[in-house]
Amino acid sequence: LVLSQLLKHTVMVAIDYCLARWTSDAISGKTELELKNCSHCEDFNHSPYSKVFSILCCLGIVLCLVTSIAVEWTGLKVTKKLHSSLLNKIILAPMRFFETTPLGSILNRFSADCNTIDQHIPATLECLSRSTLLCVSALAVISYVTPMFLIALVPLAIMCYFIQKYFRVASRDLQQLDDSTQLPLLSHFSETVEGLTTIRAFRYEAKFRQKLLEYTDSNNIASLFLTAANRWLEEYIGACVVLIAAVTSITSCLYSKLSSGLVGLGLTYALMVSNYLNWMVRNLADMEIQLGAVKRINGLLKTEAENYEGLL
Length: 312
Hints:
By secondary structure, this protein is mainly alpha-helical. 88% of the residues lie in helices and 0% in strands.
């Protein structure tokens, strides 16, 4: 999984770099022709660049398919192994285990937790690895284009570490608050629909409508704070990265004669760092919540089996 992700993002960076180099060379060739004022000179040859660009794009498409297959195969393999181990443990568990453990808890391990491991964790893992590698590759490209960015990268990385450390805790709590306020809203709505005849008979429409609005407001408040926290992380860190990258790129372009294509490449990646970093932290927080399903299943896997040594 990690190898396929590394290869895919390496090819993606190579595609962007090839496009930036193609643009810079084309502009330079056109400028030279205008300075020479030569009408019979040959135009810039785009054929080598287009061939390399096409090959890299095809390779990137194949690697995207390989990455998707690797993610699904990894999740399926882990789920089958955990489900098989859990089933064997529960079947061989002693009777005192079923007397002390609620049946709903056992069913949730086989249903909700296995569904989380089967469907949600692989997708979150893929998004987390993709956003992390995109963020690292973006910072690497910016550092390659403008080496002066490395000077500001160390304090920026320290600042990002402490910000995400506090943000992950707040994001996880806000996500749980959003989920906990959504359940009463859905339950009240379904109960209202089922008992609509009785509510109309006793003329309690206004009371139930007001209760539904209160549950909706509670859920909207949690969602608003969660969205505001995510936007704050994206805008604050992203603005710092874009500012530093823009200043260093413009300075390098003025004094080091940096090509316009590479400057555009660095600024493009700088504008995307905020989005990548936001998704990386959010996926990391989601992964911490979803791995609770694995923790609960591992708790049942420690159940001691019944002693059948005396039976034939």
